[in-house]
Amino acid sequence: MTLVFRFTLFLSFFLAPILATAQLLPDKLTGYLQKLPAQTQVNVAFESLTDSTRFFHLSDELVPSASVIKIPILIETMEQVKARKFDLDKVHVLLASEKTGGSGVLQTYPDDSKITNLEVLTLMMTRSDNTATNILIRELGMDHINRRMQTLGLTKSRLNRVMMDTLAAKQGRENRVTAREMNLLLKKIYRNEVATPALCAQMIDILKRNADQTTFRLFLPPSAVIAHKTGELTYVRGDAGIFYVTKPFLLSVFVQGTTTPEAEKIIGEIAAICYNQYQ
Length: 279
Fold this sequence. Notes:
By secondary structure, the chain is an alpha+beta fold. The protein has helices spanning 3-34, 70-82, 117-126, 130-140, 142-151, 166-170, 179-190, 197-208, 260-278; strands at 41-48, 54-57, 63-64, 91-93, 114-116, 176-177, 226-233, 236-243, 249-256. It has a single domain, classed as DD-peptidase/beta-lactamase superfamily (Beta-lactamase), CATH 3.40.710. The strands form 3 sheets. It has a 5-stranded antiparallel β-sheet, sandwiched between helices. A two-stranded antiparallel sheet has the order 3-6. A two-stranded antiparallel ribbon has the order 4-5.
């Protein structure tokens, strides 16, 4: 057996499955999306972290972010921690005027409750707490959050209002992101390219504790490990995360033009297609 033949055999035996995966996933996702109703808009960004497979569908189009906008707020928090401008151990006294509706538990806490900044940050991400989010936006500065996104290479995504500001939303001042740019932020966390490696590990740990089970996790086994942030408004459902499988990958999906249960089903099915290909 010649050396060339052995090398060719190695390539066919070991690399063929990888190449097949790279070719197959985009075809599967394209076929899935083509079967959806015409009025349903789905924005998808898939990127493997171990091979060259990519799939982008309307991934550069701005969409209402809902609570997925909390990912850049998380990053800005940790950047300010790194710069010693924000202390996670500092105690925050919850004021009645800070409480807002929508998702979260802080609105139910007694006035003048004492919570650490770390607890505020964690509730923003794990319970999508809107009161916690608005506290952090005020503490960090909306301009700083937007400037950080621009510094990290995001040219379109922008935080334009605090949570539950329905008047601002009606006036067109909506928080908007793109699927591709959310992947970019998650990739920077995964690769320790923001804040510090220790703070990136802390961000990933918090993202892994997301309590929302109705999108990416809908059709996956309980053992699936995903560091992600979900978002929900009456007109959009989204999820963006890092999948810790045999071959890790990034996935961001936003769905509009259908009911919330159907949007969750679509996000769950897209996640299952990717998960089953890369687990």
